[in-house]
């Protein structure tokens, strides 16, 4: 790997920033391997992965079935919600029954949140909007509600909006407490096996460094959520960067398998099993 440069695609959000703090801060020794982080929103990263643009990238878990012919999952770098997940928010009270008559904005058709929404309520009417337009669309009445993830997940409360449905709780209640898959880190299959394992090792080291140096990593992550309350952002990071991010283990694998099986059965996603997972060297 001497002298090689690798781009890593990640989202400019607090959880991804936290996980990659060790690498972006230069605290992880990469040897003579140069790592170049590239920030894009999650729908864009999913689109880039469909064209094999980055050797290593974060993607929505729901995007994996569409790129599994060219990417393998890493056992590290994933975000799983432990009893939490995307939420449907609104300005006015909406009951679950009333949702069928409403229009809900979504952050992209390839996101895990949208796939989960389809499993939760297949008949729901939706409208795709850019991530940064979701909350303003609800606030101005352009849509009745929005499915929020990442940055919007930690800021909607500051707008005085309310939760209509918490898909993280719904998933946990219906899946015997399994964590909710949100995003994954994937590596291109055309790289030699030792390079894939080396990159996986760097991601794991970066996450372990952040967890061991939480205050520093959190200060860095807050720079990606400048308009959000620091306590809310920290709670968000702790919810999504956990032991499963270091190693998804059997619980993460079972959660992904349950999600992909149900989504494929419902015709929402293409088949994605068996999982192909790369472990650090």
Topology of helices and strands:
Blueprint: E1 5-10, H1 14-19, H2 21-24, E2 34-39, H3 42-50, E3 56-60, H4 64-67, E4 71-74, E5 79-81, E6 87-90, E7 103-106, H5 112-120, E8 125-128, H6 134-140, E9 145-148, H7 150-155, E10 162-166, H8 167-174, E11 180-188, H9 193-212, H10 214-222, H11 230-240, H12 243-246, H13 249-265, E12 277-278
Parallel strand pairs: 1-2, 1-3, 4-12, 7-8, 7-9
Antiparallel strand pairs: 3-11, 4-11, 5-11, 6-9, 6-10
* Secondary-structure content class: alpha/beta
Residues in helix, %: 40-55%
Output the number of helix runs.
13
Query: In total, how many beta strands?
Result: 12
Average pLDDT figure: 90
Radius of gyration: 18 Å
Poorly predicted ranges: none
**Terminal-residue CA separation:** 14 Å
Overall form: globular
- Helix-strand pattern, N to C? EHHEHEHEEEEHEHEHEHEHHHHHE
How many strands, which pairing sense, and closed or not: the largest β-sheet? 7 strands, mixed
The proportion of residues in beta strands is: 15-25%
Please describe the structure with a list of short key phrases separated by commas or semicolons.
single chain, alpha/beta, five-stranded mixed beta sheet
Give a structural overview.
The chain is α/β, with parallel strands linked by helices and 281 residues long. Helices cover 41% and strands 20% of the residues. The chain is built from 13 helices and twelve strands. The protein has helices at 14-19, 21-24, 42-50, 64-67, 112-120, 134-140, 150-155, 167-174, 193-212, 214-222, 230-240, 243-246, 249-265, and strands at 5-10, 34-39, 56-60, 71-74, 79-81, 87-90, 103-106, 125-128, 145-148, 162-166, 180-188, 277-278. Strands 1, 2, 3, 4, 5, 11 and 12 form a seven-stranded mixed beta sheet that branches. Strands 8-7-9-6-10 form a five-stranded mixed beta sheet, with helices on both faces. Helix 9 crosses helix 10 (214-222). The longest helix is centred in the C-terminal third of the chain and has 20 residues, at 193-212. The radius of gyration is 18 Å and the shape is globular.
